[in-house]
Amino acid sequence: MLVDTHTHLYLDRFSNDRPDVIRRAVEAGVERFYLPNVDRRTIEPMLAMERDYPGRCFPMMG
Predict the structure, then answer these.
(1) Each residue of 4-48: pLDDT tens digit?
(2) Across the chain, which distance is largest between two alpha carbons, in Å?
(3) Is residue 32 a contact partner of residue 3, using CB atoms and an 8 Å limit?
(4) SS3 category, 52
(5) Positive or negative, the Cα torsion across 30, 47, 13, 20?
(6) CB 8 within 8 A of CB 38
């Protein structure tokens, strides 16, 4: 199992191709994506990815 421990796929720059990026990563063996928070503005996009990809995307805040 491959795990991406630091990805910001929730950022706007990935809005147009996010599903394709995730699909290609999964096809390459990546099973989980850990999403580190940047600031207050990125909390909701992170949580949306968790909802859209349950069991695959995990928000991180600290």
Answers:
(1) 999 999 999 999 999 999 999 999 999 999 999 999 999 999 999
(2) 32
(3) yes
(4) helix
(5) positive
(6) yes
Quote the pLDDT of residue 62: 84
Q: Confirm if 7 and 30 have CB atoms less than 8 A apart.
A: no
Q: Where are the alpha helices (DSSP H) in the chain?
A: 18-27, 43-52
pLDDT, residue 46, reads: 98
Residue 52 pLDDT exceeds 90: yes
- The one-letter amino acid at 33: F
Rounded distance between C-alpha atoms, residue 40 and residue 37, angstroms: 8
Strand 30-36 and strand 57-60: pairing? parallel
Helix, strand, or coil here: 6?
coil
